[in-house]
């Protein structure tokens, strides 16, 4: 079965860190650019990070640049999102999807079910 499975979410205090994982099943993530988005209740969906297929230079939304880092381990068929200095505005459900290239607005495959991130003291 072809799917993406996110994990690593949880509860963290402001200023804390989490590492999210996006694992591919049934296909190779190495063949795609991979993007992360987040959605919180009452807020717009926001594509926050993307890493290319052949060019792994990442792109970030301004709201997370300098705090979040996306990376890929093709051997593990997984893309990671390291989130540092988490802020009260970061809580959301974080999901990943495949893209042809990071500049594309729409993914070429479905978004995963996501993993929930909560920031609270």
Write the layout of secondary structure elements.
Blueprint: E1 3-7, E2 10-12, E3 18-25, E4 33-39, E5 46-51, E6 59-60, E7 68-73, E8 78-83, E9 92-99, E10 115-119
Parallel strand pairs: 2-10
Antiparallel strand pairs: 1-3, 3-8, 4-5, 4-9, 5-6, 7-8, 9-10
Outline the structure in words.
With 121 residues, the protein is mostly beta strands. Helices cover 0% and strands 46% of the residues. It is built from no helices and 10 strands. The strands form 2 sheets. Strands 2-10-9-4-5-6 form a 6-stranded mixed beta sheet, with no helix packed on it. It has a 4-stranded antiparallel beta sheet with strand order 1-3-8-7, with no helix packed on it. A hairpin with a 6-residue loop joins β4 and β5. The mean pLDDT is 95.
* Low-pLDDT residue spans: none
Helix content: under 10%
Secondary structure: number of strands: 10
Which word captures the global form?
Answer: globular
- The rounded Rg comes to 13 Å
- Strand content is over 45%
Alpha-carbon distance between the two ends:
39 Å
pLDDT averaged over residues: 95
The topology string of helices and strands comes to EEEEEEEEEE
The largest β sheet comes out as: 6 strands, mixed
Helix- and strand-based class?
mainly beta
Q: How large is the count of helical segments?
A: 0
Strand order of the largest sheet: 2-10-9-4-5-6
């Amino acid at each position: 079965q072809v799917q993406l499975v996110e994990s690593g979410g949880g509860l963290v205090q402001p200023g804390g860190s989490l590492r999210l994982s996006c694992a591919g099943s049934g296909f190779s993530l190495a063949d795609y650019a991979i993007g992360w988005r987040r959605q919180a209740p009452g807020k717009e969906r926001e594509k926050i990070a993307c890493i290319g297929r052949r060019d792994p230079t990442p792109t970030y939304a301004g709201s997370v640049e300098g705090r979040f880092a996306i990376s890929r381990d093709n051997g593990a068929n997984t893309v990671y999102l390291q989130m540092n200095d988490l802020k009260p505005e970061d809580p959301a459900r974080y999901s990943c999807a495949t893209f042809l290239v990071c500049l594309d607005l729409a993914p070429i495959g479905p978004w995963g079910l996501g993993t929930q991130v909560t920031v609270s003291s």
